[in-house]
UniProtKB/TrEMBL annotation:
InterPro entries: Papain-like_cys_pep_sf, Peptidase_C1A_C. The lineage of its organism: Bacteria, Pseudomonadati, Bacteroidota, Saprospiria, Saprospirales. Residues 1-21 form the signal peptide. It comes from Neolewinella marina. GO terms for molecular function: cysteine-type peptidase activity. SUPFAM superfamilies: Cysteine proteinases (SSF54001). The keyword Signal applies. It holds the Pfam family Peptidase_C1. One of its GO terms (biological process) is proteolysis. This is Peptidase C1A papain C-terminal domain-containing protein. Residues 70-253 form the Peptidase C1A papain C-terminal domain. The keyword Ligase does not apply. Keywords: Signal. It comes from the Bacteria.
Amino acid sequence: MIFRNLLTLLFLLSLGTGVRAQQPYGTAKSAEKLQGLSDLAVIDQMMYYIPGIGSSAREDLLRQNIKPYMMPIRQVPQIGMEWAYALADALEYYVNLNSNFKDNLSPDYIAMSLANAGARPNLVDGLGLLMNSGTVSAAIVPYNSNTIPNSVYSVARFGINNFGYLFRPETKARNRIFETRKALSRGNPVIVELATDAAFSNLKGSGYEPTGPITETHFLTVIGYDGERETFELRSSLGRNWGNGGYVTMTYDDFGDLAQTGYVLIPKE
C-alpha cells in the first residue's frame, strides 16, 4: 500500500510539472537526432503532449486510454511479424490524429525492406527504417504481401523523427510502470517486448496472468491504464478472436515483471 501511494504521488508530481512544459504535437523540443534515445531526461523533453488526449487533469492522470484513436485490430500472418505490426499501429496513430482521412500503414513493407537489405528483421532495425526512410500505405503494400511493387518509389512515406527506450530489461519494475504511465498520460502509445508463457498465443478473455514457465516473447502496444485498478490495457496483432477482441489487461505487478523493453515514438511534425 505504501509503495502504491508513493508511486502514484511521484507520478502525479512528475506529470503535474512535466506536462505543462510539453509543446503541442507537431513541435519537437530538441534537435537531437541520435538514433534511439536512452537518456530519460532527453526523452521527457522530446516526448509529445497530444492536445485533447493527454492531460494534466488529476482524473486523466489516474486513468487514460487511447483505444478510440487506434485503427481496427489486425491479425499477423505469422507470430514473427508482431513487432512490425506494432510499429505500424503506433505510427499510424500519430499520422491519423490530425487527418480527416484514416490511413492504414504497411508493416509488411517494413519487414520486407529490412530483409531485402540483408538484415534479419527486428523491431529496433524497424525503428531505424522508420527514421531513415519510412513505410508506405497498406494500399500500396497490402497485409501479407510477399513482394514490394515499384510504385513505392513514387508514393508518400510515413516515418518518425526518433524513438526512445523508456525502459530496458535491467530497469526496476516500478520504473517500467512509471515511465509507461507517463508516456500514456501525454497521449503516447508504448510498444513493449513482453515475456510470456506458452498459453499467451491462444489467450481467451480480458485478462492475462502467467500460469506456466516464461517461454515466449510477444510485441504489443500499451494503450491505456487504470490507476485505481492498477492495470494496463494492451493491444495485440493476434486478431479479434484473441484475448478480448484483440486487447488484454494486465496488473501493474505482472507488467513490471514481464515487460522487458519499452519504446515510445517521436513522430514527425
